[in-house]
DNA sequence: GACGATGATGTTTGCGCTCTCATTCTGTCA
DNA sequence: TGACAGAATGAGAGCGCAAACATCATCGTC
């Protein structure tokens, strides 16, 4: 161990670097945070000392002193659904580009509203400067409003009274595209298998499904319950197979569509010849169902990215150059839909 | 605003609480960290003050003073694969139970080894006390060894020379179960579609596939390349469909199996009558493929949980009561495998 | 009823960094 | 050449908390 190194085994700090480089700690600080007004030669000396000592900035100390943490919090429900993972990828990417860190708080599926408040608290305590609510429910309790008022977060937008506040993604557009596609093919009506009642998206899509049918003078048939899982899709499929007049179904997720189609096949109903199916998500496997699924793609990764970028822009108080334009769902037509048999 | 409240709008701190409760800051600290040796009456007064002021512990300050962060870092590759999400759920759960926070660093898929080193650095700088490497590759560069030596992390185990160090999950057991299941059904040989070459798991499974065949005096057929995606499975399926003598395939993921089976069907080969297929993972949709997939389940959630608990135990220097027993893969027999036709 | 043992609380100090402000250095122009 | 703007650097304070240590109250014991 060279005599220039601190002899004890504690991690090197700014003082050690400053001493070795022959500058003040303030200069070390400036170099580490990439500020201007440091002579290249000085910066080089500092960086050499940093390298030699293996120094790294102590984030807790820095954020205590500066009041900034550059931490983004994410609240998600504990599910292994594809959507959660893909959202996370987008968030991580955007955060990393702007040198933010992401910390996640998971909440049990179907948890009470209190659980979200608690997760919010955990993230605030941890120092999160902004919080992304990748969350299935409307959070408009007084407790939640108190928190979203002091810590910027997504989904504020839904709670705020601005009717033109951009949504992360337009669930109504998703449902409309799906239902109209089926009606335009000539189906007399469209049955619906919604997702878990707990999710806001579920309600939004169901409302729009009803609305589109009503617009065309069709009385919506009863809803066939679902909960996102393939098993629930299978149960729904058995129900629908027993309804001879059903020729078109709007299912709220691809995973349910897999179960639904299997049940239809077992009951001897062909897809799309007897029954057309449109679902939502466009997961990687959607094209490999039998038949390949016609589905409305949700660009989860872009959504996560957009949410993070918007939040960061708010935190920095600036326009971000690569500001995300609105993210739109897209109908992908494959082989699970067709015109009804004449 | 009551006169007892600090008039400026800065967040309340320990001093404010101490003053309002009529105690010292140290007592506030003791109450907040749930220590013993505080009279119930005193604790109540403190908590009342905390409530009134909306005080919350400042994590950065606490960790600067205590030297502890209770942060667990996770390095993952940026994919939306099911496995990543499910692992995360298990990690989050275990961390929350022990009052740890999780922060994630994502690395681009197929990134260089340097990218993992950099992610490790980011997490260390952020204060992570332990790091879970949910990572596809062997990381045994000097730079990485330097880091894993000072910050506890999983997968050390694979790098360490202890041959009996418990693996997170035994990839050899996975491959062995799959291949032996097919051979025991009477197939003369087993073809293999591995995952992405980049992944350690891929190599481990292929090695075992070769080994099991060799043990039984069978010369392994050529490998049909794959990369985890359903598309690659589909391509592999077309290749295999053109091999008349092929009757059994071990595919390294369920998603590839979906693609593979579709390609076989399109080529007129029936599953399992003409060709048996075993895959790996047991994703939610595995039971809803046509035919339902025989697959080796990887208990991702338990794996994540086990990794986190083991790391926490190491950090706390204690045995954790609910220590995870080893996590084992399990063959789930469904309908994609059968004996070869006589 | 004096003594120590224990529990409850307070005081002081410093964690490692960035902020503000002061000082020194550099180059430029009259 | 001297003065001065502006860049580069340094000095000192303090962010909010917990550790270590000091002090005070309380209790049972003989």
From TrEMBL, chains A, B:
Gene3D superfamilies assigned to the protein according to its UniProt record, in alphabetical order: 3.40.50.2300, lambda repressor-like DNA-binding domains
HTH lacI-type domain segment(s): 12-66
Matches recorded under InterPro entries: HTH_LacI, LacI/GalR-like_sensor, Lambda_DNA-bd_dom_sf, Peripla_BP_I
SUPFAM superfamilies reported for this sequence: lambda repressor-like DNA-binding domains, Periplasmic binding protein-like I
The keyword Transcription regulation belongs to this UniProt entry's keyword annotation: yes
SMART domains: HTH_LACI
Cited PROSITE patterns: HTH_LACI_2 (PS50932)
Source organism, top-level taxon: Bacteria
A Pfam family assignment: Peripla_BP_3
Record's keyword terms, sorted: DNA-binding, Transcription, Transcription regulation
A GO term for molecular function: DNA binding
The protein's name: LacI family DNA-binding transcriptional regulator
Organism: Microbacterium bandirmense
């Amino acid at each position: 161990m060279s005599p220039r190194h601190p002899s004890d085994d504690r991690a090197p700090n700014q003082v050690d670097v400053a001493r070795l480089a022959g500058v003040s700690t303030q200069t070390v600080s400036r170099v580490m945070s990439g500020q201007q007004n440091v002579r290249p030669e000085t910066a080089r000396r500092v960086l050499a000392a940093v390298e030699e000592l293996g120094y790294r900035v102590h984030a807790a100390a820095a954020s205590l002193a500066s009041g900034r943490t550059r931490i983004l919090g994410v609240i998600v429900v504990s599910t292994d659904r594809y959507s959660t993972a893909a959202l996370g990828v987008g968030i991580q990417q955007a955060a990393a580009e702007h040198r933010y860190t992401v910390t996640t708080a998971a909440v049990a599926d179907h948890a009470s509203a209190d659980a979200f408040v608690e997760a919010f608290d955990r993230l605030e305590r941890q120092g999160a400067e902004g919080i992304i609510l990748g969350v299935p429910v409307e959070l408009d309790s007084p407790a939640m409003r108190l928190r979203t008022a002091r810590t910027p977060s997504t989904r504020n937008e839904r709670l705020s009274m601005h009717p033109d506040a951009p949504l992360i993604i337009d669930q109504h557009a998703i449902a409309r595209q799906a239902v109209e596609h089926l009606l335009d093919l000539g189906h007399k009506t469209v049955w619906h298998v919604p997702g878990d009642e707990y999710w806001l998206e579920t309600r939004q899509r169901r409302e729009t499904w009803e609305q589109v049918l009503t617009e065309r003078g069709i009385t919506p048939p009863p809803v066939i319950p679902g909960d996102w899982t393939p098993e629930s899709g299978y149960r729904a499929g058995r129900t629908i197979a027993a309804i001879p007049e059903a020729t078109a179904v709007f299912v709220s997720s691809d995973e349910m569509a897999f179960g639904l189609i299997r049940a239809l096949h077992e009951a001897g109903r062909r897809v799309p010849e007897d029954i057309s199916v449109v679902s939502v998500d466009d997961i990687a496997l959607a094209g490999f169902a039998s038949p390949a699924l016609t589905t409305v793609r949700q660009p989860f990764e872009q959504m996560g990215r957009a949410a993070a970028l918007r939040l960061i822009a708010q935190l920095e108080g600036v326009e971000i150059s690569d500001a995300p334009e609105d993210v739109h769902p897209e109908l992908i037509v494959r082989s699970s839909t067709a015109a009804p048999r004449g």
